[in-house]
Amino acid sequence: MVGGSVPVYDEIVLSTALMNNILTFDSVSGILTCQAGCVLENLSLYLDDRDYIMPLDLGAKGSCHIGGNVATNAGGLRLLRYGSLRGTVLGLEVVLADGRVLDCLATLRKDNTGYDLKQLFIGSEGTLGVITAVSILCPRKPKSINVVFLGCETFEQLLKTFQLCRGMLGEILSAFEFLDSECMRLLNTHLKLSNPISDCPFYIVIETLHKFLEEAMTSSLVTDGTVATEDTKLKYRWNRVTEALTHDGFTYKYDVSLPVEEIYQLVTDMRQHLGRRAKSVVGYGHVGDGNLHLNITSPARDHALLSAIEPFVYEWTSRHHGSISAEHGLGLKKRNYIYYSKPRQTVALMGNIKTMLDPRGILNPYKTLPDDLK
């Protein structure tokens, strides 16, 4: 996505895949302590047998490691209910650039003694230290889950449905995701996945413990809807949008956060800006946290098209007080665009922290921080 884990020149690639042991699990508090190489799906299966779940769920859960999830502050489908990893991660073990092992592997929900150093490493993309172990607070597994798929005629109606949903369901609302009709078209064209309801400009996937469909249908905000007989089937469609895009051509991917009421306007403005130069311009994402995945396809890599997209997408996001990276980080590709989201004084302080912890610049070099700090 942003080149956060790829070597640029002759770097050594470090794998934590063999560090895949679950160290402890407290069935009373729900606190899991494990090594960084544990695959997210394996942790989910382990917890499922004990009536708990992981606080995050990703499309890549079958391959991603929990250490990488923490290093990138991964968001995913459950952030709306359980919050980000900055809140659910209780402790870390980290190896620093000079070889020292920083033991912050606490299992306490409250610890107000000094600086919370683990927060430096959450979302740092491996540029400050190598995460080797994680302790994380896991919620109890819900007794039942309802997954609802709805269609709306306008994005304004979609937002009003979100307001209705939040007002009625509160904290039991786990996910509120959306995709546009262009996403549905690609799913049908390339993956032969049919639309489970009538055609609409916008679609919503809601995960909750409450039977929300009846209230939504009587609100006049939605056109059609259905409840999944198996909760994985409708989420499966949403998770496969990325796969459908790969069949549509070369894909330019952007992951931004914006004020919720403005997230789809970027898609509309980008379509108008690019006109016929793009094959497809699609939008989907997490309404609950204002996260838009903007994807643009062309038959092949097109440098002229890329020049039309960037920096337009970053300038637009900055003007609307958003972030150019909502959950995928900056990596190699976006590091020099950081000033669209962060003031220079803040970036300079980040550089000072990097220099203090990694003076020789050996940890994931050429990532996250801009070139002008060197």
Tell me what you see in this structure.
The structure is a single chain. It is built from 14 helices and twelve strands. The protein has helices spanning 40-48, 66-71, 79-82, 85-88, 118-121, 155-169, 181-191, 213-217, 231-239, 241-248, 265-274, 303-309, 312-319, 344-357, and strands at residues 22-26, 31-35, 89-95, 101-104, 130-137, 146-152, 173-180, 202-208, 224-227, 250-257, 280-286, 291-298. It folds into three domains: 22-137, Uridine Diphospho-n-acetylenolpyruvylglucosamine Reductase, domain 3, CATH 3.30.465.10; 146-233, Alpha-Beta Plaits, CATH 3.30.70.2190; 249-363, Alpha-Beta Plaits (2-Layer Sandwich). It is globular and about 60 Å long. With 374 residues, the protein is of the alpha+beta class. A hairpin with a 4-residue loop joins strand 1 (22-26) and strand 2. It catalyses: (R)-malate + A = oxaloacetate + AH2. Its cofactor is FAD. Belongs to the FAD-binding oxidoreductase/transferase type 4 family.
Structure characteristics:
14 helices; D-2-hydroxyglutarate dehydrogenase, mitochondrial; 3 domains; Alpha-Beta Plaits; seven-stranded antiparallel beta sheet; five-stranded antiparallel beta sheet; 374 residues; alpha+beta; Uridine Diphospho-n-acetylenolpyruvylglucosamine Reductase, domain 3
Structural class computed from helices and strand pairing: alpha+beta
What gyration radius follows from the Cα positions, in whole Å?
A: 21 Å
Shape: globular
State the CATH class of the largest domain. Alpha Beta
For the largest beta-sheet, the strand count, sense and barrel status come to:
7 strands, antiparallel
CATH T-level fold name of the largest domain: Uridine Diphospho-n-acetylenolpyruvylglucosamine Reductase, domain 3
What is the spatial order of strands in the main beta sheet? 9-6-8-7-11-12-10
Integer average pLDDT: 89
| Domain module count | 3
CATH architecture tag of the largest domain: 2-Layer Sandwich
Strand content: 15-25%
**Weakly predicted, low-confidence segments:** none
How many strand units? 12
GO molecular function: (R)-2-hydroxyglutarate dehydrogenase activity; FAD binding
EC number: 1.1.99.39
Organism: Sphaeramia orbicularis
Family: Belongs to the FAD-binding oxidoreductase/transferase type 4 family.
